[in-house]
Every structure is written in structure tokens, then in C-alpha cells.
Amino acid sequence: MSGGHNSSRAQALQQASLALQMRQFGRAQQLAAEILKSNRTDRSAVLILAHALINQNRAGEAIVPLEKAARRGSDAEVETLLGAALCSSERSADGIEQLRRTAARRPPYLPAFQELAGQLARAGKLNEAIRIVEEGLSLAPETIDLKVDLGRLFLQNHESSKARTILMVAHDAAPGRPDILTELALALLYERDYAAAADKFRHALGLRPEDALARANLAACLLEMGDRDGAETALRAVMRGRPHLLGRAAYVLAASSHGRFFFRPSAAAKFLGGESN
User: Fold this and answer.
1) Which of 9, 189, 235, 276 lies deepest, with the highest CB count within 10 Å?
2) Tens digit of pLDDT for each residue in 156-181?
């Protein structure tokens, strides 16, 4: 293969990868498909194509190229993406079986554990999902992302005390990550430690001020602490430019022992400064 061809391919892959990162999925798909016309076995192009198709809700179209790539050699990343594509195309049993095989690899490929646990959780099998992540952590105990996943699963399974414990470990290891802060704050909120939860939500919002759900949860903490003015100010900030979050904001107000209840959504929208419709 000529140096010029290699250079052209590398440039095209770079453009396709950038398009994928920018969420320009149609362009990423087009660029990857062009690369595969001249080299059907280009692994990087297959992965970009598959990601682009899955993100366009066209996972079924990603299965064949991924299956071909998986048959060409042992590749845990390709196999994990194949499992995800199968699960997203109404072939969940096949996808989960594929992910189980990939998670059984040694040395372990940790994204396979994460994908398998996520698919099991979506299927309502939370206890099994938790066991999968715990297995991954037993193989790689320092992995922060697995600890965060485990914390989220504990929260979904209404085990907030366990969630708080593992998320505090993750937070100590990576104190600047807003995703960990918000998950830990949720665990503290569910444990009714409202002051500590509010502190973590504020910290997270300092790092990611556009996180409207974190701001709504901060409002819930403030209401429970008796700071109605602060909570209502936070909820008005949530609603600003986001009328679709009216239901969430109204629920925060109604669910608190110090909140407010509105019989009509239009009244809640007017109070919060949103659109009445």
C-alpha cells in the first residue's frame, strides 16, 4: 500500500472520528463507509461505522460488519460493540450472551462488564447487573468507572447506603469529577442527609453549571432544609429556557414537606416563570 494511500486513509479516519465525537453521526457513517469501500477489513472504520449507526437508532445495520470483524480475530472491543448492537436491535438474548462471552475473557476487558451490566439493568435484572460489576471490580479493584457504575446500580436498586459507601470511595479517588459528585449527592439525598447532599450538588454545579437535573435536586435539598426561597430560585433557573422540565420542577415542589402543590400545570408554570403551555 502506497504512502499516499496510507496518508489519505489516516486523514479520512481522523475526519470520521472527529465527526463521531461531534455527534455528526451521518457524516461519520458516510466517511467510514467510504474507507471500507477500499478496505473492507479496516477495523477502525468498522468501529466508527457501527457507533454512527447505533447512535442513529440503526443498530441492526451495524451487526453484519461487526460480525465479520469479530470473525477475523479475537477482538474484545468489536465483540462488546456487537453485543450492544444486538441488544439494541431486539436481539437482547443474543446480545447478552455475546457480552457474557466477552466478559469471560482474561485478561478482562472492562467495558464488556459495563455494557453487560447496563443491558441487564435495562432488562430489570438489577441484582445480576450488580454482581457483574462486582465481578469486574474483583478483577480490577482500582477502576473508578466500575465503582461509579456500581453506585448507580445500588441507587436504582434502592440501596442508597451501599451506593453512598462506594461512591465516597470513588469521590476520594477522583474528587473533581462532576458525575461522581452528582451520584454521591443523590445517595446522600436519599439518605436524608440534605446538608451534605446540597454541598455536593453545589460543587457539581460549580463544575457543570448547565446540569439542570442536579440543580433541581439541589432545590429538593434546600426545600427539606427549610430554605424555600433558595429552592424556588434554583427551580426558576432550572425552568429558564427548559419548559420540558416543568414536570420535574413541579414534582420537586410538591414532594417536599416544605414545598407547594399546584392543581394545574399552567399555575405551576406561571409560578416558576415558565411557559403556561
Assistant:
1) 235
2) 999 999 999 999 999 999 999 999 99
Length reported for the chain: 277
Written as one string, the DSSP assignment of 57-122 is: T-HHHHHHHHHHHHHTS--HHHHHHHHHHHHHTT-HHHHHHHHHHHHT-SS--HHHHHHHHHHHHH
The structure's pTM equals 0.87
Whether omega before 107 lies within 30 degrees of 0, making that bond cis, reads: yes
Residue 18 resides in a domain:
no
Is residue 240 in a domain? no
Instruction: Please state the domain count of the chain.
Output: 1
Condensed to tens digits (0 to 9), the pLDDT of residues 8-55 reads 888 999 999 999 999 999 999 999 999 999 899 999 999 999 999 999
Say whether 189 sits in a helix, a strand or coil.
helix
CATH number, position 122: 1.25.40.10
Q: Which amino acid is at 178?
A: P
Per-residue CA distances from 50 to 37, 41, 262 (Å): 15, 13, 46
